[in-house]
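User:
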Amino acid sequence: MKPWRPLISTGLLLILLLTPPAVHACEPCIEILGLEDTATQAELIIIGQKVAEAPHTSEHNGPDWITVRVVEILKGQIEQGQIQVNSWDGMCAYGIVADEGESYVMFLEQRNGQYDAVNIGCAVTALPVKDDAVETEEQVISIDDLVAKLGPGASRVKVSYEATEEGDPVQTGNILPVWVGVFILVVIALLSLRIKSKRPLT
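Assistant: Predicted structure:
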């Protein structure tokens, strides 16, 4: 055996061991859903604020998830005041990317036990909210006008955190207070008794 062959084999082995693994680029979206299609597919649409995020595993990666405080519910139902939402998958922003403390309209669906962006991020993900207006790619519109664009079933339900000592969220908005319902039932009962008392005896 020629004496230089072992040296070549050793050199090739060192090259393989020292070469860093290939970095896979983020896959581009074949099709990006527009606002109306995104709203139709979304299970939950909220106005929310990022209050925390997962630790960064690398200087090149964003947080795997973020914690979002629910401010308003525009579509769907949710009982939690804070939810965990997928954000980055490695170096790829497939989820919801938000600045802490800022408000966004977030379009969400459930995937793998947590909330995630619609269509794996190939859709409208989050729209900034400022002064009760939403910044879309086309224009700045009021939140009420956005709700009208979201289709049937959409409404503004504000979440209050001051209504209970525990700080649990309480949904307000289009929901009638309990006392109103009780008052209506009492009025109906009184009217029924009055009508019965005026009936002539036979």
